[in-house]
Design brief:
Blueprint (H helix, E strand, L loop, with lengths): L10 H11 L5 E9 L19 H18 L3 E7 L14 E7 L2 H9 L1 H4 L2 H7 E9 L1
Antiparallel strand pairs: 1-3, 1-4, 2-3
Helix pairs in contact: 2-5
Length: 138
């Protein structure tokens, strides 16, 4: 049986996030990303390029699309770097990229995540990722 992957929040985790972080000011999101070898645009064929691209390239397109909406919502990319294997953690588990993204508040993050313009490019993220984790921190 294949290992479970995580690409999107559930309704339950979204409610828990709001309850825990509502009214607490800035929220920093730790993003751990694992890319597909080849981007899979089957869910958003209108966003696919004419040539095959890697998951990492698809994620770069997602970030290019997303950055203006993030900044408009008062968010900021604090850190972006290549990942690797854990020094302390499960052997053989690793992540391709790590991001730290600051949002003004839980409400600002939710507004950003629901922005129609932003959502028009979400297919690049879906095409790019094989797995992910998103950990809010205050």
């Amino acid at each position: 049986m294949p290992a479970q992957t995580y690409l999107d929040a559930t309704q339950a985790t979204g409610q828990q996030f709001y309850q825990q972080y509502h009214g607490h000011g800035e929220v920093v999101m730790l993003n751990l990303l694992k890319f597909r070898e080849v981007a899979d645009y089957s869910a958003s064929p209108e966003l696919a390029s004419a040539t095959t691209i890697s998951g990492e390239e698809a994620y770069q397109r997602y970030m290019k699309h997303t950055t203006p909406f993030l900044q408009e919502a008062g968010g900021e990319l604090l850190y972006s770097g290549k990942g690797g294997s854990f020094l302390i953690g499960p052997e053989g588990e690793g992540w391709d990229m790590v991001l730290l993204v600051k949002h003004r508040s839980a409400e600002a993050f939710i507004g950003f995540a629901r922005n129609e313009g932003y959502l028009k490019g979400i297919g690049h993220r879906t095409a790019a990722l094989a797995d992910s984790r998103l950990l809010p921190m205050k």
